[in-house]
Every structure is written in structure tokens, then in C-alpha cells.
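[step 3/7] fold_predict: job queued, chain A
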Amino acid sequence: MHLNVHHKLKPEKKPMKSALCALCGKSFVSKQSLARHNNAVHRKLKPFTCTLCDKSFSWKTGLTRHADGVHKKLKLFSCTLCDKSFTWKVILTCHIENFHKKLEPSCLSDINGDSDGAGLD
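[step 4/7] structure written:
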């Protein structure tokens, strides 16, 4: 006897966002996430400091990217259309837009942005 078993796949549930920022209205999945947001975005705290140059960052990922790119000179983002490599993904994207797609260099405005707290220098 052959049995066909069908499983209905449930859509992946997104976590409930239960913490709301009183200053900007952005919602977060936890009070800890909200606290990190408030410290970085509204209080402008930068607790992660580079030991080599004293530059500070709001997020640990910003410090890591800074150290990898500025001090270690890592170039982890390679262009698949030529042999160039770049320190940051935004620079690779800009390279592709400017040299391979011949588009306006709108991506250059992203280079000095720090919206995710990562920093590029």
C-alpha cells in the first residue's frame, strides 16, 4: 500500500514587534533592541572605539567593518565583471554602476552615509 502524505508548509512568521520608540515611532522586537536604537540613533552614543585610531562607532559591526577596511586593508567584495576587489559592498556597487552599467554616480552619496552605524572610514 502506498501512502501519499502532504504537508502544508506554514508561512514563516515574522517576530512580533512589541517595543515602540517614543521619539521616532520605529518598532522593535524587544526592549533591548529599542534601547540599542535609542542609544545609537537618538542619544548618539558610540561605545565601540577602535584601539588603533580612537574612532568610535554606535554599533559593533561598524567597528568591525572599519578595522577590516582601514587597518587590515581587507578587500572582501570582488567584482564578477573584472578583476577588481573592494573593501566595502557599497563601493563595489558604485563601481559596477559607474564602470560596467554606465549609470549616474548616485551611489556616491551612500559612501559617507552612516545610517546603519557601520561607517566607511
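[step 5/7] annotate
The chain has two domains: 17-46, 48-114+117-121.
The first strand starts at residue 19 and ends at 20.
exit 0
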